[in-house]
Amino acid sequence: MPALTARGATCLGARGRLSPTFNNIINFKDFLMITVSDVSLSFSEKPLFKDVNLKFNKGNCYGITGANGAGKSTFLKLLSGELEKDSGQIFMTPGERMAVLKQDHFAFDQYSVKETVMMGFPKLYEVSKARDEIYAKADFTEEDGIKSAELEAEFGELGGYEAENEIEQMLSGLGLEEEFHDKMMSELDEGQKVRVLLAQAIYGNPDALLLDEPTNGLDIESITWLENFLLDFENTVIVVSHDRHFLNTVCTFICDIDFGKITQFSGNYDFWYQMTQIMQRQAHEQQKKTEDKMKDLKEFILRFSSNASKAKQATSRKKIYDKLADSLEEIPVSTRKFPYVNFKADREIGNNVLEIKKLNYTDADGNQLLKDFSLVVNRTDKIAFVGIEHNSVTALFDIINGVKKPDSGEFFWGQTTSQTYLPRDNSDSFNNDLNITEWLKQYSKEQDDAYVRGFLGRMLFSGDESLKKVKVLSGGEKVRCMLSKLMLSGANCITMDDPTNHLDLEAIQSLNEGLIAFPGVLLFSSHDHEFIQSIANRIVEITPNGIIDRMMSFDDYISDPQIAEMRKKLYEGTGKKIKYRV
Ligand SMILES: Nc1ncnc2c1ncn2[C@@H]1O[C@H](COP(=O)(O)OP(=O)(O)OP(=O)(O)O)[C@@H](O)[C@H]1O
Ligand SMILES: [Mg+2]
């Protein structure tokens, strides 16, 4: 953070960031970091944004907001140079370095934690890999010997020998306990993954940190931790998020993507929201006034245009009318829209829903995720799985939906049941060359295009959109596709693992209402308190020493003193901090 002073006055805003109110009086030249001039981008002739002009100054935190598919991740890719713009310029102060934390938290699952962090310094990672490869060779030639000596020297120059220690210190500093440093990324929960990805991003101390939906999948404690980290981070932060509380806490500027533009506001999210509401109301009021006036003028013109004594007046009013008609601009339609989420069960569910008997499951690294887990699910149950054992919940959901096999134990779905599943990580479903309609058809008995597109239309994929390739879809669009698949299934038992991840506020609200109205059985996890409270009628918490299972709402569950006592006992001696998955 530069020490910003102007004429003796310290110009730091709350939380140590540059206060937006000083915009006008400081010469920002020295603090300018990234300038975006006249940038436009469209995909297949559909403009995402046009003529964008923005400035990002040193030390500030910018929130990038907008609906699912508005172009937030794309804009970050333009800033980082991963994607080429159609026109315009993006300048960054020479010598400054930018780092990115991407929206996909599962992308490094096949790498170890330390390897993932080292990838934040690509040159060092490259040399380190080449060095390991040579040493792994069975037939080590003389040539290999020379090459390895070269690589060794380069590795040393790049600080490779100190790297491991540095990485470990950084991970510990980011709150990832030592026991996780030698694990594979796939073994961590999402909160831990984000810490590793942050370590990767800040490895080498970047001047600008770009984060794409970092709070996805994080519980309240991890989000608070991330907020504090960003508040203390002294360089520029540009962060995409749908989380209002998070945006309000960390951002001093909002760049909103809508109406084919990106508009920058000084202030936090709530301030942006109030401003846009006022501006939209004013635009509508102004339009209404103009339309009323035109209506009066038109009546006058029609009544008196053939009246000789008033013809002159009618002609002059016609001129005014034409002028107003020219000034009347169509109010642009926002990309913020509510999808229509409606899960219909094809068949009414009988009394036997699901019986789970003594499931045991240990992951590849030897972590016992399920230990004699048993549960009987009833026909009116909407069960929220809460607690801190996220990987246990995911393993359970995977097992009962046939994705994984348990080590031992059994489960029986009732004869009248049919199941559908929204997993936490959906990336595998979209690694193909299909368009959205073809993709959804894979899951439909009815192969008629119009039928399938009906489901896509509800999820806001209309017209040409339904011919888009699934692999280019945004994070939220992929979840909307999955929701179309779930709706189309007509299943009466739905499992969802943290379904609000990636979704914008409108989609979360529609999904929330759709699940309240769903007449079947629901098993789900979520980090959204309101979502759990409004949907669940039963709460199950998997703890390291058994489960707690209560037919009650979430608010009742967390305020019940007996349950609090029970939780304390069940976590005792595990060294784990008790927190709820909200
Ligand atoms: N290569 C491409 N070809 C065509 N369309 C694309 C391509 N890449 C992205 N898109 C589309 O551009 C739009 C913006 O995508 P982007 O990922 O930037 O959205 P986003 O604002 O980050 O959304 P979310 O909140 O869901 O993450 C989406 O509609 C997406 O389908
Ligand atoms: Mg995105």
Number of helices: 18
- Strand segment tally: 20
Spans of 5+ residues with little confidence (pLDDT < 50)?
A: 1-29
Mean pLDDT: 88
Q: Which architecture of the largest domain per CATH?
A: 3-Layer(aba) Sandwich
The span between the termini is 32 Å
Given the C-alpha coordinates, what overall shape results? globular
CATH topology of the largest domain: Rossmann fold
Briefly, what CATH class of the largest domain?
Alpha Beta
How many domains would you count in the coordinates? Answer: 4
Structural class: alpha/beta
**Biggest beta-sheet profile:** 6 strands, mixed
Strand content: 15-25%
- Which molecules are bound besides the chains? adenosine-5'-triphosphate, magnesium ion
Commentary on this structure:
There is one protein chain. With 582 residues, the chain is an alpha/beta fold. The protein has four domains: 8-96 and 210-267, P-loop containing nucleotide triphosphate hydrolases (Rossmann fold), CATH 3.40.50.300; 102-206, no CATH class; 273-327; 354-428 and 491-571, P-loop containing nucleotide triphosphate hydrolases (Rossmann fold), CATH 3.40.50.300. Helix content is 38%, strand content 21%. The protein contains 18 helices and 20 strands. It has helices spanning 72-80, 113-118, 122-135, 142-157, 160-173, 190-202, 220-232, 244-250, 269-304, 311-327, 390-400, 436-441, 449-458, 475-489, 505-517, 529-535, 554-559, 561-571, and strands at residues 5-6, 9-10, 32-43, 46-57, 61-66, 87-92, 98-101, 208-212, 236-240, 253-258, 261-266, 354-362, 368-377, 382-386, 408-413, 419-422, 493-497, 521-525, 538-543, 546-550. It has a six-stranded mixed sheet with strand order 7-8-9-5-10-11, with helices on both faces. Strands 16-17-18-14-19-20 form a six-stranded mixed sheet, with helices on both faces. A three-stranded antiparallel sheet has the order 4-3-6, with no helix packed on it. The longest helix has 36 residues, at 269-304. The protein is globular. The two termini are 32 Å apart. The model is unreliable at 1-29 (pLDDT under 50). The protein binds adenosine-5'-triphosphate and magnesium ion.
